[in-house]
Amino acid sequence: MAGTGVFKACLDGDVYKYYADGDWKMSSSGKTVSVTNPTTGKPIYKVTACTQDEINKVFQSAKAAQKLWAKTPLYKRAEMLHKVSVIMKEHKSPLADCLVKEVAKPAKDAVTEVVRSGDLIDYTAEEGIRIMSEGKFLVSDPFPGNERNKLCLSSKVPLGVILAIPPFNYPINLSVSKIGPALITGNSVVIKPPTQGAVSTIHMMHCFHLAGFPKGLISCVTIKVSELGDFLTTHPAVNCISFTGGCDTGIAISKKANMIPLQMELGGKDTMLVLDDADVESAAVNIMKGGFAFSGQRCTAVKVVLAMESIADALVSKVNAKVAKLSVGPPENDCDIVPVVSESSANFIEGLVMDAKQKGAKLCQEWKREGNLIWPLLIDHVKPDMRIAWEEPFGPVIPVLRIKTAEEGINHCNSSRYGLQGCVFTKDVNKAMLVSDAMETGTVQINAAPARGPDHFPFQGIRDSGIGSQGVTNSINMMTKIKTTVINLPQPSYTMA
Length: 497
Description:
It is a single chain. By secondary structure, the chain is α/β, with parallel strands linked by helices. The chain has 2 domains: 5-261, Aldehyde Dehydrogenase, Chain A, domain 1 (3-Layer(aba) Sandwich); 271-446, Aldehyde Dehydrogenase, Chain A, domain 2, CATH 3.40.309. Helices cover 38% and strands 21% of the residues. It has 14 helices and 26 strands. It has helices at residues 52-69, 74-90, 92-103, 107-132, 173-184, 198-211, 225-233, 247-255, 280-292, 309-323, 343-358, 406-414, 429-438, 472-478, and strands spanning 11-12, 15-16, 18-20, 23-25, 32-36, 43-48, 136-139, 150-158, 161-165, 188-191, 218-220, 240-244, 262-265, 271-274, 304-308, 362-363, 369-370, 373-374, 377-380, 397-403, 421-425, 443-446, 459-460, 466-467, 469-470, 480-488. A 7-stranded mixed sheet has the order 16-19-20-15-14-21-22, with helices on both faces. Strands 11-10-9-12-13-24 form a 6-stranded mixed sheet, sandwiched between helices. Helix 13 (429-438) links the parallel strand 21 and strand 22 (443-446).
């Protein structure tokens, strides 16, 4: 059970503490934030709510610790990250148990997330050594009008204090995808967990604590976002924000960011374009995997299918047959479809479905909902005037729009406010490349559903889907800046014969 054994240090009674200066602490506020079990709809955990003064002290410690950490040899930073990976994998069961209870992640997927996160930390440590050990040397005379009297040495140095804000759906994996690059490059980190996923993040943070990182280098602050969210994200000590979450929140943060670097992965309406020469069975399999995994609560989930009219009937028929075989129920039973994260999310999804139904779309399955549990649903004959054609449900509901031409599908994709990922299914590689080039989105998958990984691949969005690029290498690079030293040589007092 979460909170037992090694993780008891994070608790005071039934309240989870925040982490600062190498220790777990209770806030002086006396306030707590409740975490709800999506399956039961009942509170399951409580976390302490930090005060403004406590946040100030966290940032002061982070700034001081970062200065010393930046001077720590690179190989020692990597060794400590490898140690975290080992500890996380040793405690994968209680970490996974938290994910099941907090975000209703199927048990097998929860274990996979923990192991994947440990692997991500290991890869980050090794890639960080490679990147950070490289520098650049230039001389002045290649530029017109200059003599060979200046030598330029440039290298990567840390930004300072990184504020990391992960989402509820992958609180462990998307935490370490921010923390790992920050630490290997010599930065300090302050992490603000999501409410749903807070305890999973706290337990993950305890693995860093057990690894023995310097005091103040890594902190975990739990807050009432309505009271201190802006104070946290606009704090003058923050040198970079890495945020994964909703579009509106991300855009609001970016408007107040005071010219600091931003890495933001926001929402998506990931398009699957199925052309008339596609392998329809493969497309159907990928709709199931890409659209219904973790009940569609993934930024890279298939969120709209644009199918050519000539193959649409066959595609819809195959998907419907597969939907009928999905198991629906609690995450503890490893069901395919589990409850969505909150009642408000379920209400939003229901509103999209009812709007489509009222405007003439065909519900291929009966609409069924019990609390936060929504049965999988394919919606056919969706039209552009329906909300679900454009809005992100973040649930187990997939709309199908029938199109006459590839150009029509491309135009729909490019008209969206989002631009995270998309995919195209066709047997013609030339056509696939032309469609990929025309789709205005961060990534295009050919003959496969959208996916974030492998974690070292570049991952980015355009328009309202985000700023900056992720993936291990890109995150390492964006959490550093170039430092240049120019050596000015004296003019020679002699001339060569």
